[in-house]
Amino acid sequence: MTQGKVFVADKTLSGPQGDGTPPVCPPSYEEATAGCRGPSLCHSYQGGGEMLTEFTWQDKNIRRIFIRKVYCILMIQLCVAVAVVALFSYSEPVKTYIQANPGWYWASYVVFCVTFISLSFCSVARRCFPWNLILLAVFTLSLSYMTAMVSSYYNTRSVLVTLGITALVCLSVTVFSFQTKIDFTSCQGVLLILSMTVCFCGIFLACVVPFGYVPWLQAIYAVLGAIVFTMFLVFDTQVLLGKKHSSISPEDYIFASLSIYLDIIYIFSFLLQLFGMDRY
Asked: Are residues 152 and 215 in the same domain?
C-alpha cells in the first residue's frame, strides 16, 4: 500500500527520472536572451522560444521593465529633437546656412528612409545590439534635422507654442491609452484607410500648390493629419502595453520607441502647419 505513495519531498528534490538531480527551471528573460542576436539564434532554452516568450511576457515585472526602457529611449529622442529645433530656430547663422543648402534636407530624407525601413522590416537589425541603437540614433538625428529645417521657416514663437500643444496632446493621449478600455489595436483597417486618405490628400495638395496657395485646404489637410497620427499614437501605445488585441515582443523595444517617436514628430509637423506663422 505504501509503494504507490509519492511524497512532496521526493517530488521537489528529485528530477523526472528520480535520480536526485534538481528540476530544470525555465530561465528568466534576461538569461534566455543574453547574447542572442535574434529569435532564431537563441538556444539558451531548449523548451522552445515561443513558450519562453509567452511565459516571460505575462510577467508584470518584465512588462514594466520593457515599458520603462521604451520611454527612456523616447525621452532621449525627444530631447534631441527639441535641441535641434531650438538650434535651428534661434541661431541665425545656422538657419541661413540650412535654408541656403536644401540638399542636406534631401540627404537626411534618404537616410531617414533607409534607417526606417531597416528597423521596421529587418528583425535582426532592430534586435542586434549595438547596431539597433546606432541605427536608431541615425534615424533620430535625420528626422530631427528634417523637422528642424521645416520649423526654421516659421516664427520662433509659433514653434514654441506648437511644441507646447504637442506636449499636451501627447501627454493626454498617453494617459488615455493607459486608462481606456477601448481597443484601438483592433482598428488596423480603419487606420490604414485614414493613412491612405492623408497620403492622397498630400499628393493632391502638392499638385494644387504650384497653381496657388489655398489656406483652407492646407488647414483641412493639417487637421486630418494631426487626428490620424494622434490615433496612431493611441494604437502604438496600446501595442506597447500589450493588454489589447495586438502586442509587441519584449525584444522589439527599439521598434516601439521608433513608432511612438515618429507619431509625435508627425503630430508636431501637422500642428505646426495649422498654428505656425511664417517668418516672412
From this structure: yes
Task: Tell me whether residue 21 is in a domain.
Answer: yes
Q: Do 136 and 239 have their domain in common?
A: yes
Residues 162 and 182 in one domain: yes
Task: Print the domain residue range for 53.
Answer: 1-58
Beta strands, E only, 73-220: none
Long-range interactions of 150-153: CB distance < 8 A, separation 24+ = 150/269, 150/272, 151/85, 151/88, 151/89, 151/272, 151/276, 152/88, 152/89, 152/95, 152/98, 152/99, 153/99, 153/278, 153/279
Cell of 184: 484601438
User: Of 227, 246, 222, 225, whose CA–CA distance to 235 is shortest?
Assistant: 246
Share of the chain above pLDDT 70, in %: 74
**54 and 74 belong to one structural domain:** no
The residues with which 154 forms a beta bridge, in sequence order, are 278
Using an 8 Å Cβ cutoff, are 148 and 254 in contact?
no
pTM of the prediction? 0.74
At 115-172, the pLDDT tens digits run: 999 888 887 887 888 888 999 999 999 999 999 998 888 888 888 888 989 999 888 8
DSSP letter at 26?
P
Q: What is the pLDDT of residue 20?
A: 52
- Contacts for 203-211 with beta carbons within 8 Å, 24 or more apart? none
